[in-house]
Amino acid sequence: MTTNWRITINTIQEGVSQQRLVTLEGSTSPSTLRDFIGDALASARAWAEKFGRTLGSNATLQLDNEDDYYRIIGLDGSLSLDEMVEQAALERAHRQSQKQRPLGQPERLVKWRAEASSRGRAESVDFATAWQTLRGLVADVSIDSGASLQDVARVEGETGTRWTPEVRMLFTQQSGGLQLVPGFELLGLDRVLEVQQLFFDAEEFVEEQDAEIPPAAADAERPAGSPADRFLPQFIPIAEDNTGAVLVVDTRDGKLNGCVSEFSTSMGGSEALWPSIGVMVGDVITVLTSDESLLQGKYRPELREGLTWSRTR
Protein backbone atom coordinates (compact mmCIF):
# COMPACT_ATOMS: atom_id res chain seq x y z
CA MET A 1 0.00 0.00 0.00
CA THR A 2 1.37 3.39 -1.01
CA THR A 3 0.98 6.35 1.34
CA ASN A 4 1.49 9.94 0.21
CA TRP A 5 3.39 12.34 2.46
CA ARG A 6 4.35 16.02 2.61
CA ILE A 7 7.45 17.38 4.31
CA THR A 8 7.94 21.08 5.03
CA ILE A 9 11.60 21.97 5.47
CA ASN A 10 13.63 25.02 6.46
CA THR A 11 16.18 25.90 3.81
CA ILE A 12 19.01 28.40 3.72
CA GLN A 13 20.37 29.67 0.42
CA GLU A 14 24.13 30.03 0.23
CA GLY A 15 25.11 33.61 1.02
CA VAL A 16 21.66 34.42 2.46
CA SER A 17 21.09 34.17 6.21
CA GLN A 18 17.27 34.13 6.15
CA GLN A 19 15.51 30.77 6.38
CA ARG A 20 12.70 29.92 3.96
CA LEU A 21 10.10 27.16 4.05
CA VAL A 22 9.58 24.70 1.20
CA THR A 23 7.07 21.83 1.03
CA LEU A 24 7.91 18.66 -0.92
CA GLU A 25 5.60 15.75 -1.69
CA GLY A 26 6.22 12.06 -2.25
CA SER A 27 4.93 8.56 -1.59
CA THR A 28 6.22 5.50 0.22
CA SER A 29 5.13 1.87 -0.13
CA PRO A 30 6.34 0.49 3.23
CA SER A 31 4.27 1.45 6.23
CA THR A 32 6.70 2.15 9.10
CA LEU A 33 7.43 5.64 10.37
CA ARG A 34 11.13 5.01 9.73
CA ASP A 35 10.38 4.38 6.04
CA PHE A 36 8.33 7.58 5.73
CA ILE A 37 10.92 9.76 7.45
CA GLY A 38 13.78 8.10 5.57
CA ASP A 39 12.18 8.67 2.17
CA ALA A 40 11.15 12.23 3.02
CA LEU A 41 14.64 13.03 4.30
CA ALA A 42 16.25 11.60 1.16
CA SER A 43 13.91 13.70 -0.98
CA ALA A 44 14.68 16.84 1.03
CA ARG A 45 18.43 16.31 0.78
CA ALA A 46 18.22 15.64 -2.96
CA TRP A 47 16.23 18.85 -3.43
CA ALA A 48 18.69 20.87 -1.33
CA GLU A 49 21.67 19.52 -3.26
CA LYS A 50 20.02 20.17 -6.62
CA PHE A 51 19.23 23.81 -5.83
CA GLY A 52 22.28 24.66 -3.74
CA ARG A 53 20.51 25.08 -0.42
CA THR A 54 21.32 24.02 3.13
CA LEU A 55 18.73 22.21 5.24
CA GLY A 56 17.80 23.61 8.62
CA SER A 57 17.48 21.31 11.62
CA ASN A 58 13.68 21.09 11.85
CA ALA A 59 10.87 19.93 9.56
CA THR A 60 7.28 18.73 9.75
CA LEU A 61 5.96 15.58 8.08
CA GLN A 62 2.29 14.90 7.37
CA LEU A 63 0.85 11.67 6.01
CA ASP A 64 -2.31 11.42 3.94
CA ASN A 65 -5.45 10.53 5.92
CA GLU A 66 -3.89 11.76 9.16
CA ASP A 67 -4.95 15.01 10.83
CA ASP A 68 -1.83 15.40 12.95
CA TYR A 69 1.81 15.73 11.91
CA TYR A 70 5.30 14.65 13.00
CA ARG A 71 7.89 17.22 14.03
CA ILE A 72 11.30 16.07 12.85
CA ILE A 73 14.55 17.41 14.27
CA GLY A 74 18.13 16.69 13.23
CA LEU A 75 17.93 17.13 9.45
CA ASP A 76 21.19 19.06 9.65
CA GLY A 77 23.02 15.84 10.54
CA SER A 78 22.93 16.29 14.31
CA LEU A 79 20.84 13.11 14.75
CA SER A 80 20.85 9.70 13.10
CA LEU A 81 17.77 8.48 11.23
CA ASP A 82 16.79 6.16 14.10
CA GLU A 83 17.13 9.04 16.58
CA MET A 84 14.98 11.29 14.40
CA VAL A 85 12.28 8.61 14.16
CA GLU A 86 12.29 8.05 17.92
CA GLN A 87 12.12 11.78 18.70
CA ALA A 88 9.33 12.37 16.16
CA ALA A 89 7.19 9.56 17.58
CA LEU A 90 7.73 10.64 21.19
CA GLU A 91 7.02 14.32 20.48
CA ARG A 92 3.78 13.55 18.66
CA ALA A 93 2.60 11.13 21.35
CA HIS A 94 3.27 13.73 24.04
CA ARG A 95 1.55 16.49 22.04
CA GLN A 96 -1.55 14.35 21.48
CA SER A 97 -1.73 13.46 25.17
CA GLN A 98 -1.90 17.16 26.02
CA LYS A 99 -4.79 17.94 23.73
CA GLN A 100 -8.36 18.49 24.79
CA ARG A 101 -9.58 17.26 21.41
CA PRO A 102 -8.01 15.94 18.19
CA LEU A 103 -6.34 18.43 15.91
CA GLY A 104 -8.48 19.20 12.87
CA GLN A 105 -7.35 19.76 9.34
CA PRO A 106 -5.68 23.15 8.73
CA GLU A 107 -8.31 25.81 8.12
CA ARG A 108 -8.00 27.48 4.78
CA LEU A 109 -8.57 31.14 4.36
CA VAL A 110 -11.35 30.31 1.93
CA LYS A 111 -13.67 30.36 4.96
CA TRP A 112 -13.16 34.10 5.20
CA ARG A 113 -14.72 34.48 1.80
CA ALA A 114 -17.96 32.78 2.83
CA GLU A 115 -18.04 34.75 6.07
CA ALA A 116 -17.53 38.06 4.28
CA SER A 117 -20.16 37.25 1.66
CA SER A 118 -22.72 36.50 4.36
CA ARG A 119 -22.46 40.04 5.68
CA GLY A 120 -22.88 41.62 2.26
CA ARG A 121 -19.31 42.65 1.61
CA ALA A 122 -18.69 45.13 -1.17
CA GLU A 123 -17.35 43.57 -4.35
CA SER A 124 -15.32 46.65 -5.30
CA VAL A 125 -13.12 48.87 -3.12
CA ASP A 126 -10.69 51.51 -4.37
CA PHE A 127 -7.28 50.32 -3.23
CA ALA A 128 -5.68 53.76 -2.94
CA THR A 129 -8.49 55.04 -0.71
CA ALA A 130 -8.55 51.88 1.40
CA TRP A 131 -4.78 51.91 1.88
CA GLN A 132 -4.73 55.51 3.04
CA THR A 133 -7.47 54.67 5.55
CA LEU A 134 -5.47 51.67 6.77
CA ARG A 135 -2.36 53.80 7.12
CA GLY A 136 -4.31 56.19 9.33
CA LEU A 137 -5.37 53.32 11.59
CA VAL A 138 -2.13 51.34 11.80
CA ALA A 139 1.16 52.70 13.08
CA ASP A 140 3.73 50.52 11.32
CA VAL A 141 6.98 51.67 9.73
CA SER A 142 6.63 49.02 7.02
CA ILE A 143 3.72 50.91 5.44
CA ASP A 144 5.38 54.32 5.48
CA SER A 145 7.02 53.75 2.11
CA GLY A 146 7.75 51.10 -0.47
CA ALA A 147 9.70 50.56 -3.67
CA SER A 148 10.10 53.02 -6.49
CA LEU A 149 8.00 52.74 -9.64
CA GLN A 150 11.19 51.94 -11.56
CA ASP A 151 12.01 49.01 -9.29
CA VAL A 152 8.43 47.74 -9.45
CA ALA A 153 8.54 47.85 -13.25
CA ARG A 154 11.86 45.97 -13.25
CA VAL A 155 10.59 43.15 -11.02
CA GLU A 156 7.31 42.97 -12.95
CA GLY A 157 9.31 42.51 -16.13
CA GLU A 158 11.39 39.73 -14.57
CA THR A 159 8.25 37.79 -13.62
CA GLY A 160 7.19 37.79 -17.27
CA THR A 161 3.60 38.51 -16.24
CA ARG A 162 1.59 41.71 -16.55
CA TRP A 163 0.65 42.89 -13.06
CA THR A 164 -2.58 44.59 -12.11
CA PRO A 165 -2.43 48.27 -11.09
CA GLU A 166 -3.23 47.24 -7.50
CA VAL A 167 -0.20 44.96 -7.30
CA ARG A 168 2.08 47.71 -8.57
CA MET A 169 0.64 50.20 -6.10
CA LEU A 170 0.86 47.74 -3.18
CA PHE A 171 4.62 47.40 -3.56
CA THR A 172 5.11 51.16 -3.79
CA GLN A 173 3.20 51.66 -0.53
CA GLN A 174 4.87 49.15 1.84
CA SER A 175 8.17 47.35 2.34
CA GLY A 176 6.96 44.05 3.81
CA GLY A 177 6.37 42.71 7.30
CA LEU A 178 2.85 43.96 8.06
CA GLN A 179 0.57 41.13 9.22
CA LEU A 180 -2.38 42.38 7.20
CA VAL A 181 -4.41 39.21 7.85
CA PRO A 182 -3.87 36.58 10.58
CA GLY A 183 -0.73 34.55 10.00
CA PHE A 184 0.30 36.26 6.75
CA GLU A 185 2.90 39.02 6.47
CA LEU A 186 3.02 41.21 3.39
CA LEU A 187 6.05 40.77 1.16
CA GLY A 188 8.34 43.57 0.14
CA LEU A 189 9.23 43.86 -3.53
CA ASP A 190 12.64 42.32 -2.89
CA ARG A 191 11.02 39.00 -1.91
CA VAL A 192 8.67 38.50 -4.88
CA LEU A 193 11.12 36.82 -7.25
CA GLU A 194 12.68 34.74 -4.47
CA VAL A 195 9.32 33.37 -3.31
CA GLN A 196 8.26 32.61 -6.88
CA GLN A 197 11.52 30.76 -7.52
CA LEU A 198 11.08 28.63 -4.39
CA PHE A 199 7.75 27.40 -5.72
CA PHE A 200 9.10 26.91 -9.25
CA ASP A 201 11.99 24.86 -7.82
CA ALA A 202 9.55 22.71 -5.85
CA GLU A 203 7.39 22.23 -8.98
CA GLU A 204 10.42 21.16 -11.01
CA PHE A 205 11.45 18.69 -8.35
CA VAL A 206 7.95 17.18 -8.17
CA GLU A 207 7.84 16.84 -11.97
CA GLU A 208 11.12 14.92 -11.92
CA GLN A 209 9.76 12.54 -9.27
CA ASP A 210 6.35 11.99 -10.92
CA ALA A 211 6.24 11.84 -14.71
CA GLU A 212 2.44 11.47 -14.68
CA ILE A 213 1.70 14.75 -12.91
CA PRO A 214 -0.68 16.93 -14.99
CA PRO A 215 1.04 19.80 -16.84
CA ALA A 216 0.83 23.30 -15.39
CA ALA A 217 -0.62 24.53 -18.70
CA ALA A 218 -3.98 23.00 -17.77
CA ASP A 219 -4.23 25.23 -14.69
CA ALA A 220 -2.91 28.24 -16.59
CA GLU A 221 -5.76 28.02 -19.09
CA ARG A 222 -8.45 28.14 -16.41
CA PRO A 223 -10.01 31.53 -15.55
CA ALA A 224 -8.71 33.63 -12.67
CA GLY A 225 -10.09 32.51 -9.33
CA SER A 226 -10.14 28.82 -10.29
CA PRO A 227 -8.36 26.40 -7.92
CA ALA A 228 -4.95 25.31 -9.23
CA ASP A 229 -2.83 22.30 -8.38
CA ARG A 230 0.35 23.90 -9.75
CA PHE A 231 2.07 27.19 -8.96
CA LEU A 232 1.80 29.39 -12.04
CA PRO A 233 3.82 32.35 -13.35
CA GLN A 234 0.49 34.23 -13.28
CA PHE A 235 0.49 34.00 -9.47
CA ILE A 236 2.14 37.08 -7.96
CA PRO A 237 2.96 36.45 -4.27
CA ILE A 238 2.06 39.32 -1.95
CA ALA A 239 2.16 37.71 1.52
CA GLU A 240 3.56 34.58 3.22
CA ASP A 241 3.01 32.64 6.43
CA ASN A 242 5.39 30.40 8.38
CA THR A 243 4.12 27.10 6.98
CA GLY A 244 5.04 27.53 3.33
CA ALA A 245 1.75 29.06 2.15
CA VAL A 246 1.41 32.37 0.32
CA LEU A 247 -1.30 34.77 -0.71
CA VAL A 248 -1.11 35.47 -4.43
CA VAL A 249 -2.79 37.81 -6.85
CA ASP A 250 -4.17 35.74 -9.72
CA THR A 251 -3.45 37.48 -13.03
CA ARG A 252 -4.99 34.83 -15.26
CA ASP A 253 -7.66 36.02 -17.67
CA GLY A 254 -11.27 36.14 -16.57
CA LYS A 255 -13.76 38.18 -14.57
CA LEU A 256 -11.75 37.64 -11.38
CA ASN A 257 -8.44 38.84 -12.82
CA GLY A 258 -6.64 40.45 -9.88
CA CYS A 259 -8.31 38.36 -7.17
CA VAL A 260 -6.43 37.17 -4.08
CA SER A 261 -6.04 33.42 -3.45
CA GLU A 262 -4.01 31.19 -1.14
CA PHE A 263 -1.44 28.69 -2.43
CA SER A 264 0.77 26.06 -0.82
CA THR A 265 2.68 23.19 -2.38
CA SER A 266 0.92 20.68 -0.15
CA MET A 267 -2.66 21.91 -0.71
CA GLY A 268 -2.48 23.67 -4.05
CA GLY A 269 -4.39 26.86 -4.79
CA SER A 270 -7.69 27.91 -3.30
CA GLU A 271 -10.58 29.58 -5.06
CA ALA A 272 -10.65 33.38 -4.89
CA LEU A 273 -10.68 34.66 -1.31
CA TRP A 274 -11.17 38.32 -2.26
CA PRO A 275 -12.02 39.74 -5.70
CA SER A 276 -9.20 42.29 -5.33
CA ILE A 277 -6.52 43.59 -2.98
CA GLY A 278 -8.71 46.61 -2.35
CA VAL A 279 -11.56 44.45 -1.06
CA MET A 280 -9.13 42.53 1.15
CA VAL A 281 -7.86 45.77 2.71
CA GLY A 282 -11.45 46.98 3.01
CA ASP A 283 -12.39 43.85 4.99
CA VAL A 284 -9.49 44.47 7.38
CA ILE A 285 -10.59 48.09 7.86
CA THR A 286 -14.13 46.90 8.64
CA VAL A 287 -12.80 44.64 11.38
CA LEU A 288 -10.53 47.39 12.74
CA THR A 289 -13.42 49.84 13.03
CA SER A 290 -16.14 47.49 14.30
CA ASP A 291 -16.74 44.59 16.64
CA GLU A 292 -16.41 42.04 13.86
CA SER A 293 -13.74 39.33 13.69
CA LEU A 294 -12.04 37.34 10.94
CA LEU A 295 -12.03 33.59 10.30
CA GLN A 296 -15.48 32.82 11.67
CA GLY A 297 -15.01 35.05 14.67
CA LYS A 298 -11.74 33.43 15.74
CA TYR A 299 -9.37 36.40 15.30
CA ARG A 300 -9.54 39.96 16.55
CA PRO A 301 -7.06 42.70 15.60
CA GLU A 302 -4.84 44.41 18.13
CA LEU A 303 -3.32 47.84 17.50
CA ARG A 304 -0.24 48.45 19.58
CA GLU A 305 3.07 48.93 17.80
CA GLY A 306 1.46 47.92 14.54
CA LEU A 307 -1.24 45.43 13.57
CA THR A 308 -1.35 42.00 15.21
CA TRP A 309 -4.07 39.38 15.61
CA SER A 310 -5.17 37.42 18.66
CA ARG A 311 -7.23 34.26 18.76
CA THR A 312 -10.55 34.77 20.51
CA ARG A 313 -11.26 31.09 21.14
From TrEMBL:
<protein>
    <submittedName>
        <fullName>Uncharacterized protein</fullName>
    </submittedName>
</protein>
